[in-house]
Amino acid sequence: MSLGGLHWSLPWLLFLLPLSLLPWWTHRQEHVVAWVRFVPVDPLSRMIGLLLKSLASLAIAALVFAFAGPYFPEKQVERIGEGAEIVLLLDRSRSMDDPFAGSVKTVQTGLVTPGRENSKRRMAGRFLNEFIQKRPDDRFGFVLFSSEAFDLLPLTYSKAAISATVAASMLGKGLSDTNITKALEAAAKMFEGQAYRGARIVLLVSDGGSSELDNATKDRITNLYKKQSLTVYWIYLQSRKGMSLDVKPGDSPLWKDVPERNLHEFFKGSKLPYRAFEASTLEEFNTALDEINEQQYQTLVVTETIPKENKSKPFFIVALLALLLLLLSQIYTVWGVRLAHG
């Protein structure tokens, strides 16, 4: 039930509002006097009496309103912000349990333990959480993948939800295979049926590519990403020291046709908005995130959910103040009577 813009948890209690008239139904005692001039005219006392009755009525009405449970319901409002809608794709393969390629010397000296706190996956998750907190207006989704893709969290404005999901992805050990194509499709499908609000980004964090990029798969991913107007960022966590995504003179023959390069060449030739960052150290990974953070601030329609707001407190405060004034008046009356008969 809605009344005056407020909704009520127990609207039937509002039928008790007529009780606020009780202070005005006091029994009037008739006194017979010999001469009417013996009765003094006291407008101040009459005014105080009306004020006390009004306070009593106000206290009763305020308590009825308070116990009826007034509240403003949950609602969604739109505002203009700056940011983007971002789906995070985080690799869950076993190779992500290794340290960054640039840390090999440290591993050999025993200062880094592969697969533990310094693994690529855990360090990436830690810096991704910092990246999330820097972008208050963004809407984030999350896909975790290895041999399968798991869309763990649909697009949401809740920073607590996305941060908890990223933190949970850092637990446990990685799996054996990597299937990026399924993850890329799962990320794009998160935008299906969504109103276009502004920049849309798929942020891939992985140290591997895909060996399953046939022409049909390439066409399917390209069409899907163009349809949803998606921009792709890939932070490539180098797993082969010295190897970059682009072919260079003097490269090792072993690096020919590796999955990472195949995926990179596909993105470059797809005419999709795409940029790759290569990170062999934690510092380079952090620099890549900072650059993405600086670039992707565009006008964005932000939908905020305003939670249900209980409005009982103001009514309780009004009732308390009215009752306090009535109590003080009674104390003053008792004190005056005792003083008169003292």
Brief characterization of the structure:
This protein has nine helices and twelve strands. The protein has 342 residues and is α/β, with parallel strands linked by helices. The strands form three sheets. It has a six-stranded mixed beta sheet, sandwiched between helices. Strands 1-2-3-12 form a four-stranded antiparallel beta sheet.
**CATH architecture label name of the largest domain:** 3-Layer(aba) Sandwich
Low-pLDDT segments: 104-115
> Quick check: average pLDDT?
81
Cα(first) to Cα(last) distance is 56 Å
Give the full name of the CATH homologous superfamily of the largest domain: von Willebrand factor, type A domain
User: For the report, how would you describe the main beta sheet?
Assistant: 6 strands, mixed
Please render the helix and strand layout as text:
Blueprint lengths: L1 E2 L2 E3 L34 H25 L2 E3 L2 E9 L1 E7 L12 H5 L11 H14 L5 E7 L3 E8 L2 H11 L10 H10 L10 E7 L8 H13 L2 E8 L21 H11 L4 E6 L2 H14 L2 E9 L2 E2 L1 H29 L2
Parallel strand pairs: 5-6, 5-8, 8-9, 9-10
Antiparallel strand pairs: 1-2, 2-3, 3-12, 4-11, 6-7
Helix pairs in contact: 1-9, 3-4, 3-8, 5-6
Explain what this protein looks like in three dimensions.
The protein is α/β, with parallel strands linked by helices and 342 residues long. It folds into two domains: 2-73 and 309-340, no CATH class; 77-304, Rossmann fold (3-Layer(aba) Sandwich). It is built from nine helices and twelve strands. The protein has helices at 43-67, 104-108, 120-133, 159-169, 180-189, 215-227, 259-269, 282-295, 312-340; strands at residues 2-3, 6-8, 70-72, 75-83, 85-91, 139-145, 149-156, 200-206, 230-237, 274-279, 298-306, 309-310. It has a six-stranded mixed beta sheet with strand order 7-6-5-8-9-10, with helices on both faces. It has a four-stranded antiparallel beta sheet with strand order 1-2-3-12. The chain has a two-stranded antiparallel sheet with strand order 4-11. A hairpin with a 3-residue loop joins strand 6 (139-145) and strand 7. Helix 3 (120-133) runs parallel beside helix 8.
